Amino acid sequence: MPTQPSVLVFDVNETLIDIDSLAPLFGELFGDERVLREWFGQLIMYSMTVTLAGRYVDFFTLGQGVLRMVAAGHQVQIADDEAARLQQQLRTMPAHPDVVAGLTALRDSGFRLVTLTNSPHRPGSATPLENAGLAEFFERQLSVESVRAFKPAPAVYQHACQELGVTPADCMMVAAHVWDTLGAQGVGFGGALITRPGNPPLPVDGLPQPDLVVSDLRELAERLTIS
């Protein structure tokens, strides 16, 4: 790494909390739990498309629309209550088993920990991070809603720096998605890729590679705290 970061900025969905917990719902709706990955890939693609088109709707609303689009392709009917179940489950996904131990080690080592998520925060409602029992580890929970653009738009990462009073060089983006580390590295962050299942590095010459590639947060803590 060029410099040791003082601020670790964590993605939430799939990085800290487990989207595979949604698989039974997709198995029920489509008869195939693998449709979860089709839906999630389309959701990420259309979040980026919405931003490039200069539009914005919140991530969970977009997720319901993409669910109906994917269902139409599979010739499946989605009832309103089924779409509502997806939104509810998006807010209540559990943490990955390694997360508490990893965050504890990083916090105890003196790193500032914050989150930066595509998911919306609703006044009066618990955030997905709070529902997963992880909020206590983080000094701030930042959402793309503040800039009405989805990651990896540069403005999202720049806004995080402004909110925290730091420079990009102070920060490392920790994410399970190369598109997120690429976006953050594009504005001067470091990047750490957590290789959750199905999320390997992107080996393309000419693109920045993550400064760290680790299997989980415990390994991240070990790598960052080695003297």
Automatic annotation (TrEMBL):
InterPro entries named among the record's database cross-references: 2-HAD, HAD-like_sf, HAD-SF_hydro_IA, HAD_sf, PGP-like_dom2, S-2-haloacid_dehalogenase
Signal peptide range: none
Taxonomic superkingdom: Bacteria
Single GO term (MF): hydrolase activity, acting on acid halide bonds, in C-halide compounds
Keywords: Hydrolase
Stored CDD domains: HAD_L2-DEX (cd02588)
Family: Belongs to the HAD-like hydrolase superfamily. S-2-haloalkanoic acid dehalogenase family.
Name the record gives this protein: Phosphoglycolate phosphatase, HAD superfamily
Organism of derivation: Mycobacterium rhizamassiliense
